[in-house]
Amino acid sequence: MRLFVMILLAGWTGLVCAQLYKWTDSEGRVHYSDLPQLPSTKGVEKTKLSANVIESDDMPYALQQTAKKNPITLYIFAKCGEPCMLAQSLLDKRGLPYTIKNGETTDKTELHKLTGDTKMPILLVGSKLLKSGYVEVTWNRVLDEAGYPKLNPLAKFHKKPIGQTQQVSAKP
Q1: Are residues 83 and 152 located together in one domain of the fold?
Q2: 122 and 42 share a domain?
Q3: Mean predicted confidence (pLDDT) in 138-150
């Protein structure tokens, strides 16, 4: 059985690395083949193709559109403790894209202008502002009304955030 698998892999590797030939016929059509052409065929060149890789995002299209229409911003700070951790955990559990703004480094006047206070956590979904602290039922209702799904099935393809102000895609 092991020998069969090795032969199969060796054959597959050969197919992946096969030489490719490109030429243009007398009518101007471009052709590709894995077989060399006759010496009388003009303009034959050896070609190497890169791997066929499809770029993908970690969000379904509908979620991307919702995020453009109603972006999520979460204001938190370190001393907030459990409410801030629960707020971020809710967004992560649902696999939603959001931006974190750390209240320690965010301009205090920006935060005071936005909310009239500096209490955390604060959630901004599109133009809807939740400044009463973390209340899971209320936050879920606002996220649902904004069109966000209860779960992002592609959340496991999360890209780790960098820096203080972070764009977070979705966590597993």
Answers
A1: yes
A2: no
A3: 93
Kindly tell me if the per-residue pLDDT of 155 is higher than 90: no
**118 within domain boundaries:** yes
Strands (E), 5-91: 20-24, 30-33, 45-47, 72-76
- Per-chain mean pLDDT for the chain: 74
Q: Which of 22, 17, 72 minimizes the C-alpha distance to 43?
A: 22
Distance between CA atoms of residues 19 and 49, nearest Å = 9
CA distance linking residue 27 with residue 167, whole number of Å? 52
pLDDT in tens, 90-110: 999 888 999 988 766 665 666
Q: What is the DSSP letter of 145?
A: H
Task: Identify the CA nearest to 123 among candidates 171, 66, 75.
Answer: 75
pLDDT level of residue 133 (50, 70, 90 thresholds):
confident
Question: Do 78 and 24 have their domain in common?
Answer: no
Residue-number span of the structural domain to which 117 is assigned: 61-168
